[in-house]
Specification:
single chain, mainly alpha, 4 helices
């Protein structure tokens, strides 16, 4: 399956194969990218409640993925949190 260059780069930076988009690490990396872009949008458009709601949903989804990764593969969790420079749980 073809992905955009940006998406492929994010997945490779997460330390995975370019075709492995189903793993927790890849999903967390992609969610983090979407969260960062939406955060910038919400900062500019303070009254955009719908985007803010979507941002909260994405953050919740990423939190669940991080929780799962932390329970199953603690070493991968630590490296991913450090690599993406996000706060852990």
């Amino acid at each position: 399956m073809k992905y955009s260059k940006e998406t492929s780069k994010i997945i490779q930076d997460a330390g995975l194969d370019a075709n492995d988009v189903g793993s927790s690490q890849a999903q967390i990396a992609l969610l983090t990218d979407r969260i960062r872009s939406l955060t910038e949008h919400v900062k500019l458009h303070k009254k955009d409640v719908h985007s803010r709601h979507g941002l909260v949903k994405l953050v919740s989804q990423r939190r669940k993925q991080l929780k799962y990764l932390r329970k199953t593969k603690l070493d991968s969790y630590d490296t991913l949190v450090e690599k993406l420079s996000i706060r852990g749980l």
